[in-house]
Each structure stands twice: as structure tokens, then as C-alpha cells.
Amino acid sequence: MNTTDTFTDTYTLLPGRTPLLVSLPHIGTFIPEALRPAYTERALAVEDTDWHLDALYDFAREMGAGLLMPRCSRYVIDLNRPPENTPMYPGANNTELCPTRFFTGEPIYRDGNAPDTAEIDRRRATYWQPYHDALAAELARLRAAHGHAVLFDGHSIRAELPWLFEGRLPDLNLGTASGTSCAPSLRAALSDVLAEQSAFSQVVDGRFKGGYITRHYGQPAAQVHAVQLEMGWHCYMDDTPGAPPALDPARAARVQPVLRALLQTLRDWTPGAGE
Fold first, then answer.
1. What's the pLDDT tens digit per position in 169-178?
2. What's the whole-model pTM score?
3. What's the CATH code of the domain at 92?
4. Is the pLDDT of residue 94 over 60?
5. Strand order of the sheet with strand 172-175?
6. pLDDT score, position 89
7. 80/97 Cα distance (integer angstroms)
């Protein structure tokens, strides 16, 4: 199976040499030229991007982990949503497969320009499917090579977004689909990493339990284990509304040791008997 770096119009795959694959599905900022007139001026700034996670996790390759990253913005299509567009969190405000609202609730498209069913189908085939084909194939390769595969799905978000959730998020939000997307011993080991540090508030399976990628690919019985980390922007950048989305090196240096410890735990973990 292919183990060379892959660069396409829709994603970049950098295969690793360990069981760990890091997916960063919301770091893309590109909106194709043909689609740009449909968006509001504000939307073209792609403010709900998971900013700078490629830089924040730049140590992952040195550790032997693989990386999968998209080119397009989540405003084109959300790679962490089900292809049939069912809500991830029933009863709460959700963004769709092809999002139509900012995280603050306002529309991202000009009046009458939101994608119709045919356009959503086209985007799914053009942008969503290639990413997921690559993700599935790489996990299959890792499982065949190592006996198991581990997927880390990395995200970040502003900590206060009343349209999406009440109050303020903890700094680090680990999701394991309530313990169903990975083995119990892996969930416990990651929980210990978070509990043993005091610099950042943390929760396991709180508001963010894992999106489509974690829930769909996390199949412990098949030796594919998946977790999601949703991190507050303020951990590594200024999250004041309207502030430029610039990486803060001092803040990043504080949180990176915790991220490194999580990824090292994921890389080095092996399934126990019966897991």
C-alpha cells in the first residue's frame, strides 16, 4: 500500500511510521473561485477555521505520526459531518455538511445563494469523499502494518459561542464518543495525561464527544481506535472577537507539551488482552 506523501487538490496525506494518524479536518482556508460570489464578505475571511493546528502539531511527524489535512474551508464542506447530513448533537444548534451559518448564528451566504441539494451532492463527491477515502485507506494500512490503528482528530474553537453551547468551554475537551470510539485503557491513559497537568482545564466526553470522524472510524472491536481533541483558541492565540487569528508563540509553547504527551500516549499505546 502507498506510503509516499500525497498532495492533491483536496488534501495532503503524509503517512507515518507508527500506528498513529493525525487528522486536522478544519484547518483548510481555501474557497474555490467559482463559489466565492455566493458568500458574504465576512464569510470569505473563514473565521471559523481551526487556525494554526498544522503549526501547533508540527512535532507529530518527528514522533512518527501521519498527518491528513484538507485544502478547502469548512464553509465549502464540513469533513467532520455525516454524508447524509444528520445532526451530530440532536436538540442543539448544529452546523451542517455544507454550513450555512457562522458559529455565531448569522448566515454565511448571500440571500438566495445557499447550496441546493445538487450542489451539496457535487461538493460531497468533489471534496468530502476524497478526504474520507484517504482516511479510510490510511487507517487500513496502519492496522495491517501494526495490528491496530489510532486516529487523533484535532480541532480548536472559540471558548464562548452562545449559539452553539452555554457558558465557557474547558481548555481541552477530549472526546471518545462516550467511551465507544476507543479501548477503555486508551481512554483511561489519555484521561490521566489531562488530569496530571494543572495548567489547563479539561474534560473527557463533555460538550464535545467527537464528531463524525471519531464516531465513524473509531471501531475498537476492529482495532481502529479514535479520539477527538477540541481545544480553546485561547490556549494558543488571542480569541477576542475581531482579533486577527495570529498564533501566539508564548501561548503555544505552554500547551504544546500537553499535546505532545497526548500524542505520545496514543502512539505508544497497545491494546490489552480482550481489547
1. 999 999 999 9
2. 0.96
3. 3.40.630.40
4. yes
5. 6-7, 11-14, 66-70, 20-23, 149-157, 224-232, 172-175, 202-204
6. 62
7. 8
User: Which of 15, 43, 13 has the alpha carbon at shortest distance from 29?
Assistant: 43
Contacts of 152 (CB under 8 A, 6+ apart): 20, 21, 22, 23, 65, 226, 227, 228, 229, 262, 263, 266
Rounded CA-CA distance 55/144 in Å is: 29
Provide the H-helix boundaries in 15-128.
53-56, 117-123
20: phi then psi, degrees, rounded to nearest 5: -95, 130
3-class SS at 118?
Answer: helix
Do the domain assignments include residue 274?
no
Packing angle between helix 184-195 and helix 249-268, nearest 10 degrees? 150
Structural domain boundaries, residue 175: 6-268
Instruction: Find out whether 131 and 10 touch, Cβ atoms under 8 Å.
Output: yes
In a domain, 180, yes or no: yes
Q: Is the dihedral of CA 67, 71, 75, 78 positive or negative?
A: negative
- Which residues on adjacent β-strands are paired with residue 204? 174
85 and 96 in contact (C-beta within 8 Å)?
yes
Q: Using CA atoms, how far apart are residues 163 and 235, in angstroms rounded to an integer?
A: 21
Residue 56 backbone phi and psi in degrees, to 5: -65, -35
1: in domain: no
**Structure confidence at residue 93 (pLDDT):** 56
The answer as to whether 275 is a domain residue is: no
Helix (H, G, I), strand (E, B) or coil at 51: coil
- Indicate the SS3 state at residue 162: coil
Long-range contacts of 83-86, Cβ-Cβ distance < 8 Å, separation of 24 or more: 83/124, 83/128, 83/129, 85/120
Question: Among candidates 12, 2, 114, 20, which has minimal Cα distance to 63?
Answer: 20
User: If you search the block for the grid coordinates 474547558, which residue do you land on?
Assistant: 170
